[in-house]
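Q: Got a minute? One more chain.
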Amino acid sequence: MMPTVCIGLVLLGPVARAERAAVLIDINDGAVIYAVNGVRPSYPASLTKLMTLYLLFEALQAGRCSISTEFPVSAAAAAQPKVRLGLNAGEKISVNDAIDALIITSANDVAVVVAEALEGSVDQFAAKMNAKAVALGLHQTVFRNPNGLPDPGQITTARDMALLGRALFDHYPNYFERFKSLSFEFKDRQRMTHNNFLLSYDGARGLKTGFTCNAGYNLVASAERNGRHILGVILGEASASARDARMASLMNVAFKSKTRRLFKLNEFPLTADQGANEAPNKEMIATACIDPEHTDKPQIVSNWSIEFGVEVDERTALGRAETFIQTHQKLLNGEQPMLIPRWTRKIIYRVGVTALEKDNAISTCLAVRTEKNHCIVRSPMAGNFQMEKAHRILEAIARRDKQLKN
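A: Always. Here it is, folded:
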């Protein structure tokens, strides 16, 4: 539930634990105009790529590479899980395309390419990320990888992400403009942004979204209206639509009223009511991601979903789901690819999209359903039943494989 705001935006006192972290600042002077759970530890997910981009911009400014420099793609980079640009080992990608891929499609493979090109390895790059975090005053942030894939030691706060967003604006204003990009072409294919806030909010200037199961739905966004430039951070929302709606609501109030400057970012109070004493969120607060390699728990589906196809290969199935999302992004909002393993003498994958609102799921299915294209809408209860069934199948296969090895 959104906090009640009467006159401008005000710093909240002690908050309910359900309240997700949020910070709004005036990007020009760093004044905080709204904060709740601002120093509560959270998982950054793909917001991590903001630091990867910061270090890439730093390398460009220092002359260590140019916009046309081509970085090699290693086998490790090519093997990164979704979301990917789809690079193959042995290929090369230009710095220009790498910037677009990180900002627009949040490509995990490209983040590793950049890390290896700039520092030789992911571990060395993570060390550089952490050194830069200290230098910028990100006191509660620890990086473990360049792309934000889950790692229990990789944490941040809304306050730290606001600092990083402002540092990108202050230190690399020319490159900051690239966060507004909506699409880019790579290998004769147009790649579209996943950032619905950038697409839908008047005056939005972009930055970055992020999602993992434990992190929830994250967003760092900036917007400019009537000469005012505000940067906002939201961490841990339960859906992309809720995240975007909350950011829009907070920014609307900030733009329409005379907002009070509470304090500067570097004077942020490390108090209990801002979440400093809380451990990183361990709950599965958003729609979970299915992972056939780790089947100790069935997926929890908390939103509506649709199913529209079957594939015999996991990677092909995932690619089909991601392509569907990109093709129908005007219909979808807050979507995530969904694969449901099924056993028919071998594993096949039913392909779908989850993390949808009911009306959106129904309208999407009606829009894409034809005589040749089927589409099924599933409620959260039906989705959970399917996931539990898939979990049992995977467990049975794992037991069988273990017996065969013995």
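A: Residues 113 and 275 are 35 Å apart (CA to CA).
Q: Perfect, thanks.
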